[in-house]
Design brief:
- InterPro entries: RAG1, RAG1_pre-RNase_H, RAG1_RNase_H.
- One of its GO terms (molecular function) is histone binding.
- The chain has one domain (20-172).
- The protein is elongated.
- The chain contains three helices and six strands.
- 20% of the residues are buried.
- The chain is an alpha+beta fold and 175 residues long.
- It has helices spanning 45-55, 57-66, 154-172, and strands at 21-22, 40-42, 78-91, 105-118, 127-131, 141-147.
- Strands 1, 2, 3, 4, 5 and 6 form a six-stranded antiparallel β-sheet that branches.
């Protein structure tokens, strides 16, 4: 989906049509003797967030209608509250099939859009136009990164999630 950040995100590619990317962002070496290209796959955070918002378009429009607002009312921007989670998926050694050898455990980093609110022209308080009804449901959870790593391996988790954190920080400094 076409979108633009103002100002442009720092240290993040300006290309918006990013699909699944290597979780180690170009590392050529191995981590713990596992080929780097098998260890993680992820979406760029802002691309995944925009995609999730686009998927919620009907719910957002319904929320505006329920509050008696038009989409042109949202001139001062909007606020999206996101809940992140990172959870171990247990032993996957039996599940990966006949591909390359992978570590035996996997970790998933994901997010859920909890609420969306807007500040209407001339109003002091924000108006909530979307609230996730089932925040702990698998259906509202948006996977961002899948890593073949033990959840107790903080060194590898930090290496893989470092760029995700940088993208989140860049989004907070833009709109």
């Amino acid at each position: 989906h076409l979108f633009e950040w103002q100002p442009a995100l720092k240290n993040v590619s300006s290309s918006w049509d990013v699909g699944i990317i290597d979780g180690l962002s170009g590392w050529t070496s191995s981590v713990d003797d596992v080929p780097a290209d098998t260890i993680a796959r992820r979406f760029r955070y802002d691309v995944a967030l925009v995609s999730a918002l686009k998927d919620l378009e009907e719910d957002i429009m319904e929320g505006l209608r329920e509050k008696g607002l038009d989409d042109s009312t949202c001139t001062s921007g909007f606020t999206v509250v996101v809940k992140e989670s990172c959870d171990g998926m247990g032993d996957v050694s039996e599940k990966h099939g006949s591909g390359p050898a992978v570590p035996e455990k996997a970790v998933r980093f994901s997010f859920t859009i909890m609420s969306i609110s807007i500040r209407a022209e001339g109003e002091e308080d924000a108006i909530t136009i979307f609230q996730e009804q089932k925040p702990n449901s698998e259906l509202s959870c948006r996977p961002l990164c899948l890593m073949f790593v033990d959840e107790s391996d903080h060194e590898t988790l930090t290496a893989i999630l470092g760029p995700v954190v940088a993208e989140r920080k860049a989004m907070l400094e833009s709109r």
